[in-house]
Write the structure tokens for this entry.
Amino acid sequence: MTSNSNPSFDELRWVIEIRRTLDEELEEDSEVPVNIYNVPKTLMATKPDCYVPQEVALGPYHHWRPELYEMERYKLAAAKRTQKHLQRVKFESLVDQLTKHEPRIRACYHKFLEFNGDTLAWMMAIDASFLLEFLQVYAIKAVDYAGTKSAHNAILRDMVMLENQIPLFVLRKVLEFQFLTLDQADDMLCSMLAGFGEDLCPFGMMKDLPQIHVEEQAHLLDFLYHLIVPRSKEPSEIIELFQIIWNLLSTCTQGPIRLLKRLLLSDPVKVILKLPWTIVSKLPDIFFSQNKEENKPENGNNIIKPPLIEEIAIPSVSELSKSGVRFYLLMMATLYLPTVSLDVNTEVILRNLVAYEASNASGPLIIARYTELMNGIIDTKEDAQFLRERGIILNRLKSDEEVADLWNGMNKTIRLTKVPFLDKVIEDVNNYHTSIWQVKAGKFMKRYVFGSWQFLTFLATVCILWLMALQAFCSVYSCPRMFNVTKDE
């Protein structure tokens, strides 16, 4: 549910924008990857209110929605207060500076933006001013918003929605105008992000917060995602080794060295060097994949495959508890789960993290797989109560039933994915659960006895025949006398 197309669309202006965009070429080293997407339709259809802002529009996707336009006066008031903090410049100077970054701003959005440059720059400046003023609560930490907690949470939910993001470098640019140096602006932004993450991160991992590199964060939702799923570090030692070797080669001018340098500077090598290291490291697997296919075991027992259904095939918490699985307790079997805090904001946060992960991540969908796991082991309010009593779920909702409804509602995925460590946990839990003799007996009875009308018919026939045979036997022989049973006269 993004902004609808304008029926009075100006085709001439569209052509002018396209021509100007094609004429403007970004520098090769400053290319900006897309990181603000539309929510996939399969997720949007499940619960639109979790993906569509309800109070405030940030950025271009929902800017013209009339029901959100009431917040414009608060955003303009924040822009006026921002102007007072600018270092001897006008607010319009900030807008002019953002206009210079228009191609970079547009490059962050997956959807084509039907705005001219001035409109986009003013929109970014005003929305960034509002957002920074709101985030100052986390930097100051002395502001009490208990009286407006409901409104505060409503805006927080809108701030983490995938379609309601603005690039973080825009916030950084606005702060740069308010402080004397870029370092001071980064320190303020880091303190804002730290407080924001501590307040909204549903997992208890904020005790040792890693160092925040502002330039690496795309937007607020991206920061929250990588706070939970850390970025994979490239092998810097190997890169440093290549740098040392290159420095040595650059000082040599002998024939073989000159040929090697010419080879390293060739176009194919340049293309490979521009690829991410995670892709380059997989090149040997691609070249030798044929041999690997031939050496694969035929039975495929060692391959962990994701399920082909929406809910993971794993017993619920109650069933696992009955079969001897203990949560956090070192007894017959142990299943370790991270502590998750659930409040009025958690569902929106998790759903948008899943949507962002599905749209942006090239690797396994870790958060999506985790939500599938929780959806699989929590079926009823008794399951939620069980996990709450063991400290795995910190329930700040009204009831355990709401917790169960939250996880059971998150059963839609975008694509199948493999997360080895989670899939191994699921496989181990299923193997342990199915190895319990009570479970085997229960499955046998359910499948072959209670679930088979043929077996029940056969059992009833046998019973009837046995009773008929007993009746015939007793009619010939005196059964009471044989069993020492006397009749009362």
